[in-house]
Each structure stands twice: as structure tokens, then as C-alpha cells.
Specification:
single chain, 291 residues, alpha/beta, TIM Barrel, eight-stranded parallel β-barrel, two-stranded antiparallel ribbon, 9 helices, 37% helix
């Protein structure tokens, strides 16, 4: 089996047509849809805020560009566990509607954070219950998407034990993990040595960005402390479905003042170089857009 490559296209630009054109230019045939602008006279909005007609128009443009809406990536669960349930439900239902309209493989979710002033241990049960509600709602919606947890240093799932504890409630495949090595480093963990062995059965996506702890800055993949070379070498293309680019370089000291698309291309090239060095297959590319 050959893994694919996706891109968090909102990092490239806000207009959706530019996002799609740039992904195709890079040979990336999958879009992870976050924030986008459908027309010049409308503001950019999160994917979960689009209505039915707008989602139909988005699908039309994606079909024309030859790019798949692979993952719906809203901010569901990226806040404390006591956040207003109406907000959580609104974001969740908007995400489910987007996944249905686009035929998305995944809906990205987060694990919630403890309440202000509370510890992860104190809020463990409440967080597990809140996450279960997300999983159940996605499953019962019939949208066909799989809940994709992204570990995050500000959330409950910030290290190996907490992420494994949350995922351990589910069989691998019922809930998948987008493994973010950068987040592990920021949380003070060694991604490959300490976290990977605990969560590998659930990993279906490698969420690719890197972090240098000494300089506290995001850097190109493979140049930080994310142990991404070891992770790439260990990753099984028969189990890992996707290599997801979200380099975040435009937000870093490394990329300050540089063109967003140039930084995105640099990140893609760094991933391809790591694959080549590890003897791993390059991902399938968008038709007519050679690497």
C-alpha cells in the first residue's frame, strides 16, 4: 500500500481557488480544509461554518481542481472541557455536514483541555465522556468519516500516557490518531522514544511539523527535535494512510517575512527527502503535477 500526502491548505492562502491551485502545483491531491474564502467579497470562514449551498460550491471547485476534501479540520474540542455545549455542538454538526458534502475520510478533533485551574487528572473522566460524545455523534451521523484525534500540547492528549489513555477507549480504526511530533516536543516529551510506542496502533496520519526546543521555534521537518527521521523510518505505509503537511513555518522566526507558498514547498521537499533517505515510497501525486 502507498500512503498519500495532504496539505493544510489554509496555510497557503485564504481564497479557496488559490489553495487548490497551489496544492496541485505541489502534486498534493488531498486537502485538509480549515479556513477558506469562497469569494473575494466574503470573509474567510472555518469549514464548519459553511452552509449547504456553499459546501456544494466548494465540492464543485474541488472536483474541477482534481483535489479531494480529505479531512475536515475544524477546532472541535480545542478548548476546555467546560466550554459551552452549544458551541461544541454547532461546530461538530457543521463539521459533520461538511464531511458528508465532501466525502471526507476524516473529521479532525481535539481532546479538550482541563478546566481553568484544574489538572488533567482531576478532569480525566469529564474529558473522556466529552470525547466519547464527539465520537458517537460522528459515528451515528452516517457521514462516513472517522474521528481523527490530533494530539496537542495545550490539550488533555499532550503526552504519551494521556493520549494512549484516551485512545485506549477505542479499537484502532474506530478512532484514528494524527500524530504531531512537534506537539510532543513542546509538551516536553521525546516523540519517537517516549510517545510513539504508546500510540502507534492508532496512528493513521503523520501530522508533519517540527520544533527546536532550544530556540523555542518551529523549523522545517527533520531539522528539530521531533525525531521525524526515526518516525518516518519506523512508519508502515500499509498502516499509515497519509502524510499531512501543516508546517506552520509562516508563524515562526524561521519563516518570518518569507512567502507562505515557498515555505510550504520547502516543507514538502523536506518530507520527500526524508522518505528517500529512509527508502520509503513517495506518496501518490496529483495527476499532471510532477514532483
Amino acid at each position: 500500500m502507498r500512503w498519500g500526502m495532504s496539505g493544510m491548505s489554509g496555510e497557503i492562502a485564504e481564497p479557496i481557488d488559490e489553495q487548490l491551485a497551489r496544492l496541485r502545483e505541489l502534486g498534493v491531491a488531498r486537502a485538509n480544509l480549515t479556513k477558506l474564502q469562497l469569494s473575494p467579497d466574503a470573509p474567510a470562514r472555518s469549514i464548519d461554518q459553511l452552509g449547504a449551498d456553499e459546501l456544494a460550491e466548494l465540492q464543485r471547485r474541488m472536483d474541477a481542481a482534481g483535489v479531494r476534501g480529505y479531512c475536515v479540520t475544524p477546532p472541535v474540542g480545542k478548548y476546555p472541557v467546560d466550554t459551552d455545549s452549544a458551541l461544541v455542538e454547532r461546530q461538530l454538526q457543521g463539521s459533520i455536514a461538511a464531511a458528508k458534502a465532501l466525502g471526507a475520510r476524516f473529521i479532525r478533533v481535539f481532546s479538550f483541555a482541563p478546566r481553568a485551574g484544574a489538572s488533567a487528572g482531576e478532569d480525566r473522566d469529564a474529558i473522556h465522556r466529552a470525547f466519547e460524545r464527539l465520537v458517537t455523534a460522528i459515528e451515528q451521523s452516517g457521514c462516513g468519516a472517522v474521528p481523527l484525534l490530533e494530539n496537542n500540547y495545550r490539550m488533555y492528549a499532550s503526552d504519551g500516557p494521556s493520549t494512549a489513555a484516551l485512545l485506549g477507549d477505542y479499537a484502532p480504526g474506530r478512532v484514528a490518531l494524527a500524530f504531531d511530533a512537534h506537539a510532543c516536543v513542546v509538551a516536553g516529551a521525546r516523540p519517537y522514544d517516549e510517545v510513539w510506542p504508546q500510540v502507534e496502533p492508532w496512528v493513521r496520519v503523520l501530522h508533519l511539523k517540527d520544533y527546536a526546543a532550544a530556540s523555542t521555534t518551529i523549523v522545517p521537518v527533520g531539522q528539530g527535535d521531533g525525531q521525524l527521521r526515526q518516525i518516518i523510518a519506523a512508519a508502515d505505509p500499509a498502516a499509515i494512510e497519509d502524510l499531512a503537511l501543516e508546517p506552520h513555518l509562516h508563524n515562526s522566526a524561521y519563516g518570518k517575512g518569507r512567502d507562505k507558498f515557498d515555505l510550504f514547498r520547502e516543507a514538502r521537499d523536506a518530507v520527500l527527502a526524508m522518505l528517500d533517505a529512509a527508502g520509503k515510497p513517495r506518496p501518490a501525486m496529483a495527476a499532471g503535477a510532477p514532483y
